[in-house]
Amino acid sequence: MSIVEPHSTSPANHLGDADPQSRLDFVDGFIRRHIGPSESEITEMLSLLGFGSLDELSDATVPKEIRLDHELDIPTPRGEHEFLSSLKLIAEKNKVYRSCIGMGYTGTITPPVILRNVLENPGWYTQYTPYQAEIAQGRLEALLNFQTMIAELTSLPLAGASLLDEATAAAEAMGMCFSIASNKKNGFWASDDCHPQTLALLQTRATCLGIDLKVGPTRDIDFSYGDGGLCGVLVQYPTTDGRIEDHRELAAQAKQHGALVVASADILALTILTPPGEWGADICVGSAQRFGVSMGLGGPHAAFISTHEKFARKLPGRIIGVSKDAKGNRALRMAIQTREQHIRRDKATSNICTAQALLAIINSFYGVYHGPEGLRQIARRTQGYASALVKGLERLGHGTLDAGPVFDTIRIRLGKGRVHAARQVADAARERNINLREYADGTLGVTLDEATDRALVADLLAAFNFGHYTGFDIDELMAEAEAEGMLDFGSLTRSSEFMKQEVFNVYHSETKLLRYLFKLMSRDLSLAHSMIPLGSCTMKLNATSEMIPVTWPEFSELHPFAPDTQWRGYTQMFRELERWLCEVTGFAAVSLQPNAGAQGEFAGLLVIRAYHEHMAKKEGRENIRNVCLIPTSAHGTNPASAVMAGMKVVAIQCNERGDIDVDDLKAKAVQYGDRLSALMITYPSTHGVFESTIREVCQCVHDAGGQVYMDGANMNAQVGLTSPGKCGADVCHLNLHKTFCIPHGGGGPGMGPIGVADQLVPFLPGHPVERPDTAGEFAIGPVSAAPYGSPSILTISYVYIAMMGSAGLKKATQVAILNANYMAKRLSGDFDILYTDKNGRVAHEFIVDCRAFEKSAGVKIEDIAKRLMDYGFHGPTMSWPVPGTLMIEPTESESKDELDRFCDAMLSIREEVRAIERGEMDREDNALKHSPHTVHEIGSDQWTHPYSREQAAWPKAWLRDAKFWPTVGRIDNTYGDRNLICTCPSVDEVAEG
Predict the structure, then answer these.
(1) Cα(652)–Cα(16) distance, rounded to whole angstroms?
(2) What is the pTM of this model?
(3) What distance in Å separates the CA atoms of residue 662 and residue 678, rounded to the nearest whole number?
(4) What is the pLDDT of residues 609-626, one digit of tens each?
C-alpha cells in the first residue's frame, strides 16, 4: 500500500492544469479560482506571443542573472474549506478577554447592517482610491460625511479624509506645526500624559525632522524651548489615565507665543466634552476606532485630523471637496492634495498615500446610523458605568488619582495596606477574563466603553475586592455618582450642538440605512463590476475566503497591549507569515509593523539611517551619510519618505528606454562619496521593464558604501521568479494591499512590512509597550501606533500565501506577466508601447503613449480615461510616470475575455480618435470630450451632440447586457479648489438653498 501525506495534492491541482485530479484531491483548490485565464486561454495567449509555456516566457523576460534557481519554501496549498478549518484552530489559540486597558483602544459594537454590508461587502472593499471621481461618488460622499462628522465633533472647520492611526496623526500634526512656523521654530512640547505609543512615535519623527521634542508636564511648559522657541504643544484630551484638564489658559498662552496647540482627543468624549476648537486648539487628531471598528490587536483604524481652513495647504493626507460637473451639478472629488507626492515630490506635505478610507467609511456610517443623539447616549452610558465603578471602588476603600469628573477611564490607587496588591487585583481580573492597565507605580487603570454592561462592572468590583463579589447594585452606584455631580464636567461640558446636517438625522432605521448604503455603493465602480487596470496599483482578486477570518472575534476583538499569552494564535501567524515573506524577498528578517506602503518606505529608510549611524559610531567618526539617490521615474512617495527620514534627495536620470541611467548613477555615487546613504529603486522599473542592469546598479551603490532600498510596489512581477535579495537590494517594503491581496478599500487600509538583509536586522523597529519579536538589538523607534501595525488584515495575506503555495505564487506572477504582454501585443498596432526590453517584452505592466493624440485630434489623456467609463472601465494610471500616457496593469486575476473586453474598448476609442483626425467628428463636440455620459444626460429631451446617444452610452454590444452608469459628468477640479467646501451643507445652508 502507498502512504499519502496529509494535505498532499497532485501537481496538476497545484497549478490548476487540465490534467485529471486524484479522486481524493480537494475540489475547491484556490489557485484555479485566483488565476483568471484557463489553461486553454493561457496556451492561446502564449502562442500569440510565440512561447510554448509560462516558463519560456518568464525565462525570456526576467534577466538570467537574477532568476531564482529554486522553488519557494512555502507549504503545499490546501483547499479553501480545509484551510479555513485549520485557521480556525489557530484563531482559537487567541483568548478574547474584556479589555479595559484603554490607551486609545476600546471595545465597540459594529452595527450588523454595517458589518455585513460594508466591511464584508466587496462592493465597498474592492474599490480603488477615488482618483477617477466620476465613478467614485459613493465612497466620496461617505468620506465627506466622515470629514463633516469630525469637523463637527472637534469644532474645527476643516477635516481630512483619514490618517493611519492616532500616534502617526499626532506626528503629522507636529510636522504640520513645524511647517507652519516655516521651520524657524524647532521646539515641540508633548504633555507627558499622552499615550506612551504616541510619545515614542513623536520621538521617531522628531529626530528625523530636526525637531527638538520635549516631553513633560504642561504646567512646566517653556515656550522658549528649542531653537526659536516652540512651534507647537500636544495635549491628550482626556489624558491617557483619564483626567480631564482645562487647556483654555494653555491655548491662550500658546497663542501669545506664536505656538500652535494640538489636541489628541477621544472622539466619543467630544459628544459631551467641550470640543478642542472651542477652547482654543488649532489642530485636533485622534482615532475613530471606537466608532464601530474592532480593535484587531491594533488595526486597521482610521485616524482623524482637523484644523482651521487657513491651514488647508498644510494638512497632510486627503481632503474630499465639493465641486460641480460639466452640467453644473454638485459633484465630489479629492481636493488640493490629490496625488501631491507625484507633483511636489520631496516638497510634499507628507508621504501619506494609502490612508484608511474603508475604516473611515465605516466610522461615517456609524455616525449616520446613530446620529448625534445616539452618540451622546453611548457616551453618557459609558460615563455612567465609569462613575458607578468609581463609587463602588470607594466603598471598597480604594481611591482614584484624580478627584474630578471622569469620562471612561480611571486610575486607581489601592486602599491603605493594599498598595502592593496590584498584581493580585490584576490576576483576579484575568480570572474573570478582564485585562486592566498596570502602571509601574502600582496603580491600575480601567477604561470602559460602548460594550460595557452591568456584569462587567460587577466583575471589576469583584476583582478589586480580591476575587469576592460585592453584591453592589450598579444602578444605585450610578445614581449616587450622579447625585454627587460626578457626571458633570462643569465649564467643560459641551453646550454646542453638532451633526445637525440631514444625513446624520434621517437614516436611523436599518431599512433606511441599508438603502442609503446600497445607493452609495451603486455609484462606485469596483472589482465587482470590471477589471481596474491601474499600473503600479495591482488591483487583483480579494478572495472571499481570504476576507472571512478578518471579522472572526478571535482576530478582531483583541487589544494590542493585551498580554501576549492571549494572542498565541496571532503569534503563530506572525512567525509563519514573516518566514514566508523572508522566503519571497530573499531577506533575513521581516518587520510587520509599518501599516502602509509609505510607512514601509519611511521605516526602511530609518533602518538604513540607523545602520549608518551605528557604523560611524563603531568606527569613531561622524555620520554624514544623508544623500538618497532616487530615479526621476520613482513613485512620488519615495522622495517624500526620504525627506521625512531626514535625507537629502538627489535625482538620477533615466535613459531613452526608461531604465536607470547607469552612467549618471555612477557619477552621482562618486560625487556624493561618503555622503551617500541610499538608493531607492522600483523593480521591475516604474516603466514596467525588467532592467538588465539591476545587479550592476546595486553593486555601484554598495561600492560607495550606501544601501539599496527597493520599493516593493511591483513585487507582483517578482514572486517565485526573482527577489529583492537576489537582485542585490538591502531592504524592501511589501505592499500587502497589492501583491498579497489585502483590498484597497477605496484608498486604504494597507500594510507595508519591510524585509531586510542580515546587516540591517539589528535595527528593525521596536515599540515602547509591546516589543515585537522582530525588533532588533539597536531597534529604531516605532513607526506605527501598534507593535504589529494592522494585524487583523494580515490574516488576508496569510490565507492567500497558504492557499497558493510555492507553485501557485510563481504561476500567479507568470500569468500577470503573460496578461500584460498579451494586452500590449493586442494594443501595439494602434498605440505606441512606450517602454519595452530589448526583445520587445514588458513585465507585469506597460505604458501606452497617447501624447500624439492631443496634437492630431485635440484628445488629452483625461479624455481617454473618462471615455473608458462609458465602456464600464476604470481608467489606467494617468500621466505617470510619463505625462500624456496610460500605465496598464491587468494582474493575474483577470480572464482572457476580460482582457479582450478592455482591449476592445481601447481600440474602439482609438477609432473615435481617428474619426476626429479624419475630420469625421468635431474636435470639440465629440464623445471623448463630453465623456462620461450619465443616464440623466442620455435620457434628457435635449440632445445637441453630432454623435448619437447609442455611440455615447452603448459603443459596444456588451454594454446592453450590463452597464455601469457614472452618476455625474466630468468634474471641474479647478472650481472645487477655488471654492473649497469640505463638509456637508448645514441645515441653514439647505434651507437657504
Answers:
(1) 43
(2) 0.95
(3) 15
(4) 999 999 999 999 999 999
